[in-house]
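Give me the fold.
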Amino acid sequence: MVGREREIRELNRLYNRKRADLVAIYGRRRVGKTFLIDETFGSRITFRHAGLSPADQQPEGMLKAQLEHFYRSLKEQGMEKPEKPSSWMEAFYQLECFLKQKDNEERQLVFLDEMPWMDTPRSGFMQAFEGFWNNWACHRKNIMVIVCGSANSWILDNLINNHGGLYNRVTYEIKLSPLSLQECEQLFRENGVCFSRYDIAQSYMIFGGIPYYLEYIDAELSLAQNVDHLFFSRSAKLANEFVRLFDSIFEDSETARNIIRLLYTRNAGFTRSEIIENLQLPNGSRISRILHALTAGDFIIRYVPFGMSKRKVHYKLTDPFCLFWLHFLGEKTELTEDYWQQRVTSQSVVVWRGYAFENLCFNHIPQIKRALGISGVITSVSAWSKRSEDQEGTQIDLLLFRNDNVVNMCEIKYYGNEFTVDLQYYKKILYRQELLLKDISAKYAVHSTLITTFGLKRNEYAGAFLKVVTLDDLFERP
């Protein structure tokens, strides 16, 4: 397995201690949650069960189908003469009986995958699971229950932040995030894929460090050929993934997709009230839950643009896969099978690379801080744009406000060579720095910083940047 060292270490630590544990694992769909458990525990799993996707069921038959599936899991994994449960209370009682039957005083590991799918409307699932844990499992020192799911809002609301019978019952939680650039490079190497770091960065800007997608990469094809094969060919495996992705984790998948589509239209993002206004949504808890789930799933981030009130929280789309899909597939219908290879140097792709590399940087802030030598410094992240009638508008891609009274004013450039600063660009950097100094406290020093692929070409204007972060820096461990 590539990466996940910390998660594997923690899971094994929990497995080896002598106390009941309820572990919740969540994260974006396709990020590798099930694979993590399989690779970490393998044959040590005493009982495993995965819920059935509600997308494949009729609403009136969902409870019956889920219970039938649970019964089969018990039967296939060795329960002697199980009876078909008619309710989740019966199902979890049978699970208790199964675990007692298997008990040899060694650790017993129960893995319930895609748990949110089991909680169908009016099924009584949560009450039954609560009874299973509170009345029986939590009192047995050799029981470890791992629950997992891609519906992050369900995991957070019903388990981690539960205020009812399962309040404070989760003993450990793991949020599984996409792979970093370094981990993508390692995965490619293990799969025999020979890409340069420039191409690995582009693959991250397309697939977003999601292992499920990266495993599709064919080592015998170039990156451009792989993109055509996976998105634009007649049998493209990922052409419809954007729709499937949200259908599988949101009850109101259409609203979630519409929010993502709206955020795509403005790089700086939108406030909650702007989202409601633009999409004409009711102002209530439903929109809050969806935004919370999108944030927990690493699709979007919450941040406050510099100079705005803390109440002006913005939601910004940072998921590379969604950004790529919306930019190049979206509502388009006339796509050729060699679409990407024919347009790899087009202006549309160049523009996308600029925004996509900016989002890559937002997803690698720890690596940027390490390159700047400020890993231990408390830092807040923001972006900034300024518009006025008497001044030229300006935008700063990334601001790092540090507790040591320094602000890194970051310019982000995805470039095929060393970046060259000419006189015009030199003046632009000075102008932005001057505007920023007017709006921040006098105690701060501004360090103009360049984040780019191959570094900065030295000339008489290179002094515009005090610090330079390269693509190689982004491939380091945080």
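The chain has a mean pLDDT of 90.
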